[in-house]
Amino acid sequence: ARLKFAPMPETSLSDARMQCARRLLEHAPNPWLDRAPVVAAALQQLASAVGPGTGGDAARREEALALAHAALERHPSSVVAGAAALVAESVRDASGDAAARGTHEELLRHAAERQVAANPRSVNGWTRLADLSAAQGDANAARTAAARALAADDSYELDPLRRIPAAERARLERLAAP
User: With b meaning 16 or more CB within 10 Å and e meaning fewer, what string describes 37-70?
Assistant: First the structure.
């Protein structure tokens, strides 16, 4: 006898990623799913589902931001904060309206602050804070965060694979300069 399988539903990769993220983030209490690495992976799927070129609408981007906020509150680890920041950056890159901009900037700042609180050597967290502060016109905060990013990068001098590229370092040095 031949096995018959149900036909696969027609869905886009973006929809599949969104569905995957929802299932991993909105579940009944489950100790296997409610761990920082799993939550971070779900947020990475979410970031891919709402980025530029995915065809996502404003409602999907708002849902993604809400899911990322909730995940970050439950798991204030560096890995989850970094993934939540990716969601905010994807929404920023895909959205052109000012209302969404304020919402994603709020998540981006919150995630970057959590990232550096959980890991003071987070070059990415300090860089995000520097860039966000510069974009919002706060030169002093941008200088301070850029200097912290450079110091964090310097702390990895014995691990050259963790160091930031020369062009990124030069950009941060310009931001940190008085």
Answer: ebbbbbbbbbbbbbbeebebeeebbbbbbebbbe
